[in-house]
Amino acid sequence: MKIVILEDNRIEYERIKQSLEDWVENYDIELSLLHFENAESFFNDPQNYSPNIDLFLLDIEMGNMNGMEAAKRLRLLDYKGDIIFLTAFKDFVFEGYNVHAFNYLLKPLNNDIFFRCLSEIEKKRHSNCYIYRNKQQITVSIPYHEIISFSVNRHYVDITTTKTVYAQYNNLNTIINSLPRQFVQVHRSYIINLSHVFKFSQNKIHLSNGSTVEVGRTYLKNFKTQYLQYTTRFNRNEEFQ
Q1: Which long-range contacts (CB under 8 A, 24 or more apart) does 33-37 make?
Q2: Cα 107 → chain centroid
Q3: What pLDDT is attached to residue 56?
Q4: 101 with 143, same domain?
Q5: 10-24 and 111-127 helices cross at what angle (nearest 10)?
Q6: Are residues 137 and 86 in the same domain?
Q7: Is the pLDDT of residue 106 over 80?
Q8: pLDDT digits (tens, 9 = 90+) for 86-96
């Protein structure tokens, strides 16, 4: 889980960090923390921001840009993830609804409440991700929207994403039953994500990463049906021939 903490009090930051480390002991996940003492230092470098950040923990009272203003700026960047405000005051609690904050927690943190929030966010995060254990038995969580395809590679399945390729010891029959309906098997060796189809022509699927997959005869009718339903549902304009 990727978490960014904007907190100008070093002692408070250490307390938050310790709480997060205590919470993560109950989960088989990797915790990635970034800390900034003010919002300006975070926003001044565009590389600090990523839509893949799972959670922002924002102190309300800090620097020239307070936590509420930082949250509004994040939403202007089209950040869809979760935001939790941490503060010693209740003054901004109703304003937090305007930026769709997940919660508004008072300092000092009540760990029972904080942990419940984190667990709910983790559960929600998993519901939108493909999760598996890699060769090192580490749990890997990949957002569905990043996955382009699953393809058989000997005894493994390659998971091609917009960022990299993962290898999983599994089979397509098991995988397809665990995926949302935007994923369709198009060949005995391929499952593709309909949201990454750029063009379909002469029984060939052109994917967003430039690769091409030929649809197997036994999968062709189902693929055409699923693809037409998908493009109609989302009013997409991909080429279909």
Answers
A1: 33/3, 33/4, 33/5, 34/2, 34/3, 34/4, 34/5, 35/4, 35/5, 35/7, 36/4, 36/5, 36/6, 37/6, 37/7, 37/8, 37/10, 37/62, 37/63
A2: 28
A3: 98
A4: no
A5: 60
A6: no
A7: yes
A8: 988 776 555 55
- Which of 127, 147, 163 terminates a domain? The answer is 127
More confident residue, 48 or 88: 48
Structurally, how many domains does the chain consist of?
2
Residues 89 and 119 in one domain: yes
Query: Are 234 and 136 contained in the same domain?
Result: yes
Specify the CATH number for the domain of residue 94.
Answer: 3.40.50.2300
DSSP per-residue letters across the chain = -EEEEE-S-HHHHHHHHHHHHHHHTTSS---EEEEESSHHHHHTSGGG--TT--EEEEESS-SSS-HHHHHHHHHHTT--SEEEEEES--TTTTGGGGGT-SEEEESSP-HHHHHHHHHHHHHHHHHTEEEEE-TTS-EEEEEGGGEEEEEEETTEEEEEESS-EEEES--HHHHHTTS-TTEEEEETTEEEEGGGEEEEETTEEEETTS-EEEPPHHHHHHHHHHHHHHHHHTT---EE-
Q: Look-up: residue for tokens 């949302």?
A: 180
Token readout for 111 is: 């760990």
Same domain, 104 and 153: no
114 and 209 share one domain: no
Supply the range of the domain harboring residue 161: 129-240
Query: Are 91 and 179 found together in one domain?
Result: no
Looking at the whole model, is its pTM more than 0.70? no
Contact present, 29 and 2 (Cβ < 8 Å):
no
